[in-house]
Amino acid sequence: CFVCGKMGATITCQKKGCDRSFQLPCASEGECVTQFFGLYRSFCWEHHPEQAVQVTPEQNRTCIICLDLVEGRKSYHTMVCPACQHAWFHQSCIQKQAIHAGVCFRCLHCQNKDLFVMETLTMGIRISKRQPSWESDQACGLVYQRHSCCNARRCLCPGGREQAEEEGSWQLLLCSSCTAKGIHRRCSYLRNSTTTWECVCC
To answer: What is the pLDDT of residue 61?
Structure first.
């Protein structure tokens, strides 16, 4: 491996005539690029692709993800969105974002997807093919669950607070403002013609 000097370097630069080899864990340290699409080509620090966008970051420009300063030029460690040319980011920051965002990966500034994704793939960013990590997070799963119990001080339903019917006395009405509380129609003494209910808090 031309980066660490150890044996077992199985990745060789795809540039014709270049015989530099490296290990995947050493790629970032050696500023190598591996493209995780198409032919899965890899390049050493001397031959890796560079962004064609002709822009220079303004003084004190920050990474749109971590908000730390970026280098004063495009480099292996600093990239810019090719679509809006205003969003600058560190290579390591955009890599983390690509893993978490998955199929929703796009420029955080202009929301461009096609040009942005193709450029980042070319520059060696690996993009997850799964749903965003925040969609599968168990802590966020509760957001998608509908409230399903009667919050009356004294529930009158013989089946208990969890029982709910589509219509009638034991239909569960959710608070029309917060939807975080519910009540059986009978427990709130609402008429059958009443379609909305609001909890005490709201």
So the answer is: 87
